[in-house]
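Suppose a classmate hands you a notebook page containing two proteins, each written out with its sequence and a corresponding row of structure tokens. How would you begin to make sense of it? This section walks through that situation. The first entry is reproduced here exactly as it would appear on such a page.
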Amino acid sequence: MNQKKIIDTNGRTISKIGIVAPSFFVEKHNNFINGIKELKSYCDAIVYGKTVNNRVYNTTGTAKERAEDINSMFSDPDIDMIIASDGGCRAIEVLEYLDYEMIEKNSKIICGFSDITHILLAIYAKTSNRVIHGMDVINGFGEGLYIKQNIDLFWKNVETDQWNMGLSKAKILKEGSGCGVTIGGWLNAIVNLSGTEYFPKDNKIILFWETIDEEPNRINMMLQALRLSNLLNRVEGMIIGELTNCVEKEYYDCIPTIEDIILKACDGYDFPIIMNAPFGHKEHKGTIPYGLKVIINTKRIPLIS
């Protein structure tokens, strides 16, 4: 029985959740089992994509097979929400095989984070369907640290259309104000898709991003790439999450601080920049829906409304 009824902003009751594995195979089995157990307390049934339990090198099947799992979840009227099992490094391969026309006609929430950002960006860009960044089965629902806080925030974002993340410990890197719609996720995916048909076309963006295991010199190159792609011309505000294990090794004795790198990459733009927001690959899996219109004003509390 469904113990805790969840109703999304479209009035859809979350009764049956579809699980897909479009990137990494299920390696952390205990986390996966724990995550599924947690999800079952919020829905009546879990449905698994055909590739979820497979392993083909570091993924679960061909790009077409993984894309078909996502397509089938959207086409099934009984599936109310789709959640990725994990991140990885292969999600970009499925984008050309997704049936965006069908997905748009069968709108339902899809969520994940890290490498799954590729899929979230593409689906939002092509369909404007509701997507939520920040939680998956293994690293979100199945992870012990801060799990209740993360889960409560996730469902609050499913049920409401407003900014729900606290920023009491955030750092204001650059003062200012701006208004736009939230788009972002894993920095690497943002860079990969910026300038392509798979990146949202919104003109006023609140760009949120985080990354893991990237040296600051690499983060600099990615931010400079966004600058050259003219994406920053569309940014009205920037929210940076937790930068996990982003320690300089190559140029450890001669590289600017990460704060200086960010400020330099954004030089000439007047949008506000907030750092250390509670989302990313660490214990805080804060969730952020795409397309949420928010206002940043660093002169007031709360910073975002």
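The notebook's second entry, a different protein, reads as follows.
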Amino acid sequence: MIPTQGVNHIALSVSDMKRTLEFYTGVLGLRLLGLFPMHGVPGASHAFLDMGGGRMLSFIQFAAPPEKREGVTHPADPGSPSAVATMHHLALQVPDAAAEAALRDRVKQAGIRVSHPYDHGFCVSIYFKGPDGEQLEVTYPTRPLGAEELDAETFRVLGISAEERAAMTR
């Protein structure tokens, strides 16, 4: 096993850095840690926001990015597909139902359509879109993932043998 220390940051390409920073700092309450020209990329700006625990969310505004295409670069909604190797959604964690409800109210007050809470069994989530149409989730855990999330039928359908499953889950 590679001795990683978790995710350092996730980087998203954005069309308007100012609008993005206003949303993520003003509406979602994240703190801006850095904003500077992207190293080695002429005309690009790079921002880093604090997600807590030493983890960061990063945004890059390129001088001339390609056009976004729903269903390819991002999903239309939480249940819609996106292209392989693209980010489907970003899930931010809050500590509890009260924090999620407060954030849901802030998102609604900003004029953004937000889903009702969905109980997934191990967490409860709300869904909405960010300034560039990126799919966002805010979730809080209700219990750790358990054996019930290691669904035997899903392993079978995907062609993962019992030996492979054992190696993957040890």
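A careful reader of the second entry would note: Residues 1-64 form a domain with the 2,3-Dihydroxybiphenyl 1,2-Dioxygenase; domain 1 fold (CATH 3.10.180.10).
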